[in-house]
Specification:
About 60% of the residues lie in helices and about 5% in strands. The protein has about 600 residues and is α/β, with parallel strands linked by helices. The protein is elongated. The chain has a 6-stranded mixed sheet with strand order 3-2-1-4-6-5, sandwiched between helices. β5 (about 585-595) and β6 (about 595-605) form a beta hairpin.
C-alpha cells in the first residue's frame, strides 16, 4: 500500500491535469460563444477543485472582469443615451414655452408664501398664523413651499427662477420614466415612453407652473418606477422586492405632502402592488404594513386639510358659482378627464390632429395589453394603478361640487405611468403587436409635436391670463402714473388683480366697476375687492393714465377658434364710455390679448397731460 499510494496520487494528478486542460479548452470555447460571467463562475466552482477550495482561479478572474465589461458597457451606453435624449427633449420643450406663460392667482399666492421661512409657511398653511399679503390664502400641504424656499435661497425669489425649479423637476421625472422603462422593457420602450412624457403638452404646461404639480409628477414618476420594479422582480428575491416597496411607499408619502391628491397616488400604487402580490401567491403582509405607514403619515396633512376647508369661504367682492350642476355637465367633465390625459386644448384647433392623437393613444394602449408583451406583471400593475386612480377621481368629481376634481392639473400624477404604459408595447416578443405599438407611439408624437409648435409660436394664447402684456405696460408707463380699472366679472379679473397686487406690493392702485352704485345712472368705481371704500366717478381718479381692463374667460375651443379666425372684438364697457363722455380723457391705446382669461385693454390718458 505504501508503494502504490504515490502511484495513485500521481495518476490522480495526471487525470486532474488532463481534466483541467480540457476544462480550459471548453472555457475558451464558451467565452467565444459569449457565455455569461455568472455562469462561467458557477461552472468553475463546481468543475475545478482548486476554485472550490481557494475561491478563485484564472477562469473566475476572467469571468469577473472581461466579460461583464464587454456585455454591460453597451447596455449602460444605451441607458445613458436614452435618458439624456429624453431629458434634453423635456428641457428644450419646457424652456421654449416658459416665456409664454403668464403669472396668475395661484402662482402669485405661492410666490408670496415663499417670502416666509419653512416654519412660518407651515404655520400659515395650517391656519396657526395669519399673513395678510393682500391676496387670497393658499390651501396646500407645505412640501412644495419648503422645496421652493430652499431653491429661492440659492437662485433667488423671482417668477423666472421658480419656473425653472418646475422645469428641473420635470426633467428629473422624464429621466426617471426613461430609466425604469429601460430597466424593465429595454431601450426602445425607454425612448418611446420618455419622449411621450417629455413632449406631452399636459406635462409641458405644468413644467413651467410655480406650483406643486411638477414636483408631484416627479414623486409620481418615482412611485410608478418602484411599483414597476416591485411587480417585475421575482418573488424569490425578497430583499430587492422589499426595497422597491419601501421606495414606492416613500415616494407616495412625499406626494401626500405635495398635494392633497397624493392620497390618490398612495391608494392607487398600494392597491396595484397588493393585487399583484396576492395573484402571485406571495405574502401580502408587507403591503399591509406599507399601507399602514402611509395612513399614519397622512395624519400629518390633516391640519392643512382642515385649514383648506376653512379657507374655502367666499371672498368679499366675488360671487360664488352655483352648486347646481346638471348631469350633462358632469358627463362632460368625466369625458374631459379621460380626454385630457392624452390631449390638450391646443390640439382642438385641428380635428385631424385630435383624431390622430386619440387613435394613437388607443392603439398604443391596446398593443401594451396584447399577448406577447414583455414583463406583463409590470404592465398589469400600471393598469391597476392608473385605472383605480381615475375611478376615485371620477367618483370625487361626481360626489361634490366644492372644487373641480376633473381638472387636468389634479391628475398630472397619472402621466408618468400612462406614458410608460404606451411605450411598453414596442418591445413585445411578437412582431405585429410590436409594430402596432410603434404606430400608436408615432401617432401620439405627431399630436404632441403639433401642440408643442403652438406652444412655441402662439403660446401666450394658452397662458392662464393676459397679465403679462398688462404688466409690461405698467412698467413702461410707470407704476406711480397709472391705475388699473376692471370692468365686468371680478371672478375673472381677480386673476389679473392678484399677480399685480403681488408684483407691485400695493403701490399700484386697482379699481373695479360697481354695478350697484351705478344704478342711479352715473358710472362708479371703487377700490377692487374693498367693499368698504366709497364709490367714485372714474373720470376724477387722480392719475395720468388709466388702464381699463375687461376680462373674459375663454375655454380651449374659444382660444383655438380665435387663433384660426381672428380675435373677437368687444364693445366699450361702462367705464370706457364714461371716460370718453367726460371729455377729460382720450384713448391712446386699444388692444385685446388672448388667453384663457382674455383681456380687452383700453389705455386712457388725461387730456392736456404729456
Amino acid at each position: 500500500m505504501m508503494v502504490l499510494e504515490p502511484i495513485h496520487v500521481q495518476c490522480c494528478s495526471s487525470q486532474f491535469a488532463r481534466a483541467q486542460s480540457v476544462y480550459h479548452s471548453q472555457e475558451h470555447l464558451n467565452s467565444a460563444s459569449s457565455v455569461s460571467a455568472r455562469s462561467l463562475a458557477d461552472f468553475s466552482a463546481v468543475s475545478t477543485p482548486s476554485a472550490a477550495v481557494n475561491g478563485k482561479s484564472a477562469v473566475k478572474e476572467h469571468a469577473d472582469s472581461d466579460v461583464p465589461a464587454i456585455k454591460d458597457k453597451p447596455i449602460h451606453r444605451r441607458l445613458w443615451f436614452s435618458c439624456i435624449i429624453c431629458a434634453l427633449a423635456s428641457a428644450v420643450a419646457s424652456a421654449a414655452f416658459l416665456p409664454q406663460q403668464s403669472l396668475w392667482t395661484d402662482e402669485a399666492v405661492q410666490l408670496a408664501g415663499l417670502q416666509l421661512n419653512p416654519i412660518e409657511v407651515t404655520q400659515w398653511l395650517s391656519g396657526v398664523a395669519q399673513n395678510d399679503f393682500g391676496i387670497p390664502d393658499d390651501r396646500m400641504p407645505p412640501l412644495s413651499y419648503w422645496v421652493g424656499w430652499g431653491w429661492s435661497r440659492i437662485f433667488g425669489l423671482s417668477e423666472r427662477s421658480l419656473r425653472w425649479l418646475s422645469v428641473v423637476a420635470t426633467v428629473l421625472a422624464t429621466a426617471t420614466v426613461c430609466a425604469v422603462a429601460h430597466s424593465v422593457w429595454g431601450f426602445r420602450p425607454a425612448i418611446a415612453g420618455g419622449l411621450l412624457f417629455a413632449l406631452s403638452p399636459n406635462v409641458i404646461y405644468q413644467a413651467v407652473e410655480i406650483r406643486a404639480y411638477a414636483l408631484l409628477m416627479l414623486a409620481a414618476a418615482g412611485a410608478f418606477a418602484c411599483l414597476l420594479k416591485f411587480a417585475t422582480t421575482p418573488v424569490a428575491d425578497r430583499h430587492a422586492r422589499m426595497g422597491w416597496l419601501a421606495g414606492m411607499t416613500g415616494c407616495s408619502i412625499l406626494s401626500l405632502y405635495l398635494h392633497f391628491f397624493g392620497v390618490v397616488i398612495c391608494g392607487a400604487c398600494l392597491l396595484a402592488s397588493f393585487i399583484v402580490t396576492w395573484r402571485e401567491g406571495a405574502q401580502v403582509l408587507p403591503i399591509v404594513l406599507a399601507g399602514s405607514i402611509c395612513v399614519i403619515s397622512a395624519i400629518g396633512i390633516l391640519p392643512f386639510l382642515k385649514s383648506s376647508i376653512s379657507k374655502s369661504a367666499p371672498t368679499p367682492g366675488l360671487s360664488q358659482p352655483s352648486g347646481d350642476v346638471q348631469t350633462t355637465s358632469k358627463a362632460q367633465g368625466l369625458a374631459k378627464l379621460m380626454l385630457r390625459q392624452v390631449c390638450h386644448g391646443a390640439m382642438l384647433g385641428s380635428r385631424p390632429i385630435l383624431v390622430v392623437s386619440l387613435v394613437g393613444a388607443g392603439v398604443a394602449g391596446l398593443a401594451a395589453l396584447l399577448p406577447g408583451r414583455k414583463a406583463g406583471a409590470g404592465t398589469d400593475a400600471l393598469v391597476l394603478a392608473i385605472g383605480s386612480g381615475l375611478l376615485v377621481t371620477g367618483a370625487a368629481y361626481i360626489a361634490q361640487t366644492s372644487f373641480d376634481a376633473s381638472s387636468p392639473r389634479y391628475s398630472v400624477w397619472i402621466l408618468p405611468g400612462l406614458m410608460l404604459l404606451f411605450g411598453s408595447g414596442v418591445e413585445a416578443t411578437s412582431s405585429w403587436p410590436r409594430w402596432l405599438a410603434l404606430l400608436g407611439v408615432v401617432l401620439l408624437l405627431i399630436g404632441e409635436a403639433y401642440a408643442l409648435t403652438l406652444f412655441v409660436f402662439r403660446g401666450s394664447a394658452f397662458a392662464h391670463t393676459a397679465y403679462g402684456p398688462i404688466e409690461a405696460r405698467i412698467h413702461r408707463y410707470g407704476v406711480d402714473r397709472v391705475a388699473l380699472v376692471f370692468e365686468g366679472d371680478m371672478n375673472q379679473a381677480v386673476h389679473i388683480y392678484t399677480p399685480a397686487r403681488y408684483e407691485f406690493r400695493g403701490k399700484l392702485h386697482q379699481y373695479s366697476y360697481d354695478p350697484e352704485a351705478s344704478r342711479t345712472g352715473a358710472t362708479r368705481v371703487r377700490e377692487a375687492l374693498r367693499s368698504q371704500e366709497e364709490p367714485v366717478d372714474p373720470a376724477v381718479l387722480p392719475f395720468e393714465l388709466l388702464i381699463v381692463v375687461s376680462p373674459e374667460q375663454v375655454d380651449s375651443l374659444g382660444v383655438v377658434r380665435q387663433l384660426n379666425y381672428g380675435i373677437d372684438t368687444r364693445p366699450d364697457g361702462p367705464v370706457a364710455r364714461a371716460l370718453l363722455a367726460s371729455h377729460g380723457w382720450e384713448r391712446v391705446e386699444e388692444d385685446t390679448f388672448l388667453a384663457y382669461v382674455t383681456a380687452h385693454v383700453d389705455v386712457f390718458k388725461r387730456v392736456g397731460d404729456r
